[in-house]
Amino acid sequence: MRVIITKDYEEMSKEAARIVVNRLKEKPDLVLGLATGSTPLGLYRELVRIHKEEKLSFAEVRTFNLDEYIGLKPDDPASYHYFMFENLFNHIDVRKENIYIPDGLAKDPEKYCQWYEEQIEKAGGIDLQVVGIGRDGHIGFNEPGSSLASRTRVKTLDEQTIKDNARFFPRLEDVPRFAITMGVGTILEAKELLFLASGTEKSDIVAKAIEGPVTSLVTASIMQIHPKVIAVLDEEAASSLQRKDYYRYAEEQARRFEGGFV
Ligand code: F6R
Predict the structure, then answer these.
(1) Which residue's alpha carbon is at the smallest distance from atom 4 of ligand 1?
(2) Residue 153 to residues 99, 102, 120, 160: CA-CA distances in angstroms?
(3) CA of 81 relative to ligand 1 center, distance in Å
(4) pTM for the full model?
(5) CA of 104 relative to ligand 1 center, distance in Å
(6) Using a 6 Å cutoff on CB, does residue 42 contact ligand 1?
(7) Catalytic residue numbers, as ranges
């Protein structure tokens, strides 16, 4: 895993955007996996800015979101559909038919989840998947104890996740108890992962995910077995890492050597 430690959230977001933009320039029809939540907001703002100011096009890009709550309509302000259109899709030239977000209102969720997997496969797999991490170590909504081979499916949200996400809802009781999420196995199949984390409240779980044992109790730890992961963390999120001096040193060397190769 390549670990890039940035000064703050702003710099983390710019670094992440630089990586996405580079991949997009290499492959204009990039298949991009996306996440919601507070962490990638700065990345999306930066992508919108680059699209507007530097005319970067997303016209050929296909996107797949990690997850969506069960039971929320796409126009519900707390839904991940709404979040994605509000914060990214409405401001770039991505084509509507190229956007995939799990349907939280699917009549037959099991069948639907299989269909979602098939769409990823048909697109040729995800080239670059953006992931955040929950305080309980989840990626997507793969809560502790999820199978590390799991595929897209319905998952019951952990109490911690419900509390953490209550900030997006009028009341705690309004947070859905279930979500459709790509599985750990689905996420692992992305060709590259871009892992973002920010803030001290994430530092302990980030250290467990990057340096702890690979365990279903911290599903993000599975990233350790993925061949191509770039973790972009701000100082605060990186503060509990044992090897942070090494990561800084390695990054400095890599940039000197390769002139910033990501
Ligand atoms: C969201 C997702 C979640 C979040 C995680 C962190 O699509 O998959 O795993 O990345 O809950 O959320 P924030 O960024 O709000 O701390």
Answers:
(1) 132
(2) 19, 10, 14, 20
(3) 14
(4) 0.97
(5) 17
(6) no
(7) 67, 136, 138, 143
- Say how many Å lie between the CA of residue 191 and the centre of ligand 1: 20
Q: 132 lies in which domain range?
A: 2-254
Least Cα distance to 115 among 160, 169, 91, 151 occurs for 151
Q: Which two tokens stand for residue 41?
A: 């907001």
How far apart (Å, rounded) are the C-alpha atoms in residues 52 and 127?
A: 24
Question: Two tokens at 218?
Answer: 């911290």
In a domain, 239, yes or no: yes
Number of domain units in the chain: 1
pLDDT in tens, 30-54: 999 999 999 999 999 999 999 999 9
- Whose alpha carbon is nearest atom 8 of ligand 1? 140
Task: Specify burial of residue 181 (Cβ count, 10 A radius: 0-12, 13-18, 19+).
Answer: buried
65 within 8 A of 163, measured Cβ to Cβ: no
Question: Residue whose CA is closest, atom 2 of ligand 1?
Answer: 140
- DSSP 8-state assignment for residue 158: P
Q: For residue 256, name the pLDDT band (cuts at 50, 70, 90).
A: confident
Asked whether residue 260 is domain-assigned, the answer is no
Here the CATH number for the domain that contains residue 243 is 3.40.50.1360
